[in-house]
Design brief:
single chain; mainly alpha; three-stranded mixed beta sheet; about 10% strand; disordered C terminus; binds zinc ion
């Protein structure tokens, strides 16, 4: 689980991204604790008006870096919708990744953003793959070991 190595630096950067997103007029809220069986989730957004919800449990499960990448992705969804009116579908998922990383100052984008996003993209490419907390955690445990060929260049 080397993804979850915690440092103050990572937490600080998450908070900087959150502040940046809020400054751009997109509210970032936290899912209520124990609201549902969704505690394995990381984030969700809605397009109109734009709003992002982050699961507080995600910081413990995935670490600050991954949650930062998810926040940037969700922000990308909001910007994609604003610019192109596109919200759902696999293309929206891919484009939201690009929008997010382009719309946030480069120094705030985690070095492994691309790697994190490829991981979550698989849940859309394989229907129902991450339909439960167990499935997702199992996949996280196995990854990137099984996909070791994937570069760590953050692309
Ligand atoms: Zn998405």
């Amino acid at each position: 689980m080397r993804w979850t190595a915690e440092t103050c630096e990572h937490k600080t950067r998450y908070l900087e991204v959150e502040a940046y997103v809020k400054d751009q007029g997109v509210p970032v809220a936290y899912a209520p604790a124990g609201a549902s069986d969704d505690s394995w989730r990381v984030g969700r957004s809605s397009p109109n008006p734009p709003c992002i919800v982050i699961w507080p449990t995600a910081f413990e499960i995935y670490g600050w870096e991954i949650v930062t990448s998810v926040l940037i992705h969700e922000y990308g969804h909001c910007k994609l919708y604003e610019a192109e009116g596109i919200w759902e579908g696999i293309e929206a998922e891919r484009n939201a990744n690009d929008y997010g990383s382009r719309q946030v100052p480069p120094n705030l984008v985690p070095a492994r953003y691309g790697e994190h996003r490829r991981f979550f993209l698989r849940s859309y490419e394989t229907q129902g793959r991450f339909a439960s907390r167990d499935q997702l955690l199992e996949a996280i445990r196995d990854w990137p070991a099984k996909d070791g060929a994937m570069s760590a260049d953050g692309q």
